[in-house]
Amino acid sequence: MTTTTSPGAARPAAPHEEPDILCDNLVRIYRTEGIEVVALQGLDLRVERGDLVALVGASGSGKSTLLTILSGLDTPSAGVARVAGHDLSSTDRRARLRYRRHTVGFLFQQAAANLLPYLTAAENVGLPMLLAGVGRRERPRRAREVLDVLGVGDVADRRPAELSGGQQQRVALGVAVANSPRVLLADEPTGELDSRSSDEVFEAVRRANEDLGTTVLVVTHDPLVSEHVARTVGIRDGRTSTEVLRRDGEAGLVAEEYAVLDRAGRLQLPAAFTGRLGLRDRVRLDLEPDHIAVRPGHDGVDGKEGA
Ligand SMILES: Nc1ncnc2c1ncn2[C@@H]1O[C@H](COP(=O)(O)OP(=O)(O)OP(=O)(O)O)[C@@H](O)[C@H]1O
């Protein structure tokens, strides 16, 4: 698949540095009234410092569960979740509060609704700075700088009701990145916007990534977002299952889809492939010189399972 738009091509990973987001065999089990739901079933994910990664997946695949853990609101049942060196299985309340205040920023679908209506855009962005102890004179200057980067510097003195939906969402993004968090977590940030406003909000997210150096993980159903980032991770049944990497090619942007092989050697085969060949229960694996062949476990002659 190719597209002509030009996002930043996939950056080379720096495997020796600790990534900004590291999930290793992450498990989250919900227990309600004696019923267990395994929302994350050994999820692995690495997001390198400074990257912008989209996360996609069907409803119920575990995206919100993952974001809730990464935002420090919930703890994993097992496995490792680390963000910018912070271990998120720790239950120290003060450390979690510091983490939420300084290390991560959040942008949600209705983030604009959380702007204080009686404050201007610049005052809204200045508020988290106030909580972080930034001085009175410094705050308006820095708030305006942030709003400029996000393309809404010209409306810094307006209140939320005087802004369009896309402008409000960009101001909400300004609030999220006001204290220069290392990582921005965004959950469907363009979900309620028309395509023009989506475009502007996504462009602002990209500016936060490129100009402010924020690492971004964005959960989205919006193809405008997922098809225009260098890396899109697909999550299925609580595990990362596919990745699409995009790079600049001669005819524009070239996208290549990969299946994810986890550290234990597990692989999720696409349902379309297994369905087409009737693969189920057991399959045969044959090692060929340059690939592994996966064949039905039954011979197909008399319907009996193969050896
Ligand atoms: N608090 C909870 N208690 C019990 N089960 C839960 C809870 N939260 C989520 N689940 C279950 O965990 C699984 C993953 O849910 P999650 O909300 O993470 O999926 P999602 O990919 O974000 O879905 P959506 O796109 O619809 O928001 C689902 O089966 C869901 O029903």
**Pairing-aware structural class of the strands and helices?**
alpha/beta
Number of helices: 8
Largest sheet: 8 strands, mixed
Q: Please identify the top-level CATH class of the largest domain.
A: Alpha Beta
How would you describe the oligomerization state of the chains in this entry? single chain
Mean pLDDT across all amino acids: 88
Total number of domains: 2
Which fold name fills CATH's third level, the topology of the largest domain? Rossmann fold
Number of strands: 14
CATH architecture of the largest domain: 3-Layer(aba) Sandwich
Rounded to the nearest angstrom, the radius of gyration is: 22 Å
Low-confidence stretches: 1-10, 300-307
| The named CATH superfamily of the largest domain | P-loop containing nucleotide triphosphate hydrolases
Domain ABC transporter: 21-263
Protein name: ABC transporter ATP-binding protein
Pfam families: ABC_tran
GO molecular function: ATP binding; ATP hydrolysis activity; transmembrane transporter activity
Please tell me about this protein's structure.
This protein is of the alpha/beta class and 307 residues long. The protein folds into two domains: 258 residues, 3-Layer(aba) Sandwich (Rossmann fold), CATH 3.40.50; 38 residues, no CATH class. An eight-stranded mixed sheet has the order 1-12-11-10-4-9-8-7, sandwiched between helices. The longest helix is centred in the middle third of the chain and has 16 residues. The radius of gyration is 22 Å and the shape is globular. It starts with a strand and ends in an 11-residue tail after the last strand. GO terms for molecular function: ATP binding; ATP hydrolysis activity; transmembrane transporter activity. Keywords: ATP-binding, Nucleotide-binding, Transport. This is ABC transporter ATP-binding protein.
